[in-house]
Design a protein that fits this description.
The protein has 189 residues and is mainly alpha-helical. Helices cover 74% and strands 0% of the residues. Helix 6 crosses helix 9 and helix 7 packs across helix 9.
């Protein structure tokens, strides 16, 4: 059985009340969670005070504390993990912005941020605000952005999590990126 199938099986066992499944699953998911955290942190400014290990641990603690999540599969789990990591970073960015008004952060377009992992000017708070607005207009597009941009899921994995075709995901992903680029550019002006 592949690690992907192991994670899905263990999530099912955990959902069904087997607490040992969580302990068995932890080593299987840890590296992927660290990869997600490192990916997020590469987009942050140099000298960011959060470390990938601390980010993973905080996200993991929040995830295992979830009471009403019905884990469907590995992709669903990592989608939720991406939301948790995003939430932690956005909360951190908002707290820092509140603490240091005008610290010179320049928002960038989603395409630029995705294409340039070393870009340290991504304003996660502005992106989060734009995603919240997009969620009011089109919740599916907002969720696709979370899964593709934040979780790093492929079109096919995103389609599996969302329960729609890869072609639909591709169309919505294109429209959502264009909308977010416009919103983030408008916010920067």
């Amino acid at each position: 059985m592949t690690p992907q199938h192991d994670v899905t099986r263990l999530l099912t066992e955990w959902r069904n009340g087997n607490s040992d499944a969580l302990n068995e699953m932890a080593p299987l998911i840890y590296d992927e969670l660290r990869r997600l955290a490192r990916s997020y942190l590469r987009r942050e400014r140099p000298g960011h005070t959060l470390q990938s290990t601390a980010l993973v641990h905080e996200a993991y603690l929040r995830m295992v504390d979830q009471q009403n999540v019905s884990w469907q599969n590995r992709s669903h789990f990592y989608g939720v993990a991406a939301q948790m990591i995003r939430r932690i970073l956005v909360d951190h960015a908002r707290a820092k912005r509140t603490h240091k008004r005008g610290d010179g952060v320049i928002p960038v377009a989603l395409d630029e941020a995705r294409g340039a992992a070393a870009n340290s000017d991504l304003d996660l708070a502005a992106l989060d605000d734009a995603l919240a607005t997009l969620a009011e207009i089109d919740p599916r597009q907002s969720r696709i952005v979370e899964l593709r941009f934040f979780a790093g899921l492929s079109l096919e994995e995103t389609a599996e999590v969302m329960g729609v075709s890869p072609a639909t995901i591709k169309r919505d992903w294109t429209v959502a990126r264009a909308w977010l680029k416009r919103e983030l550019t408008r916010g920067a002006a």
